[in-house]
What we know:
This protein is α/β, with parallel strands linked by helices. It has helices spanning 14-20, 22-29, 46-55, 59-62, 78-84, 95-101, 134-148, 159-167, 172-194, 218-221, 247-254; strands spanning 3-8, 34-39, 89-94, 113-115, 123-127, 152-155, 197-202, 222-228, 236-242.
Amino acid sequence: MSKSILVLSDALRYDVAKDNMGFLGHLVESKQSTLYKIIGELPSMSRPMYETIHTGVPSSDHGVVANSIVRLSNKPNVFQLLKNAGKVTAAAAYYWYSELYNRAPYDRIDDKETDDESLNIQHGRFYTEDEYPDIELFASAAHLVRKFSPDYLLLHPMGMDYHGETFGSDSKEYRNHAIYQDSKLAPLIMEWKERGYTVFVTGDHGINADGGHGGTTPEQRTVPFFVIQPSGKGRGETGEVISHLQIAPTILKLLNVTIPETMKHPPLSLD
Ligand SMILES: [Zn+2]
């Protein structure tokens, strides 16, 4: 029975991940992981990309074209499709995820921790502050894995975005935070592999030296896509360019759930 964890590191750039995330680099170098490059969908903004990644649909089609649009998703999406297929879903993520898939607007008290099988994100642990420490979120995600063995878990830390927006991408703070995330993820990835999870690590968008994103430059839109499988097999750095729109169908295929017609891009072939 396949299970999957998506680590969606907010504003994790391809080049900075490749240069500074040495444990992931080791897995790639030793061909225990496959690394693809994603030329990100547009606009390179957070809420539009959260929805694009989980629906496999471009922003002009799903309609969440700006961060200011606060409503539930109205497209078939990974959380809803998995829940309807009887799978267990979980997320440790920014509260916009709760608004897209559980309930909008977000109630800071009632929605912060959810354990409800009727919700699309059944086991949710949400945060509202951009500077919420990644290490606390990682612990929440790891706890959800141990306690509920979800079929799909989203881990969505904000640390790269926070340091990038505060100090710009050409800063020791932004780069060093990539080293930090890698070192904290390393033991978790080992545990999750052992538990039979296929782990993906990617970003929703990049960020530029001004600390901005939303535009079309490579700095703002190029993100990594690491694939780490429980078999330990990978193809190393492929140089192959894939699309954000392939993530949702790839997760559904891995979990043996029918891909809806709205998802037009092919899933990745994982073997
Ligand atoms: Zn973002």
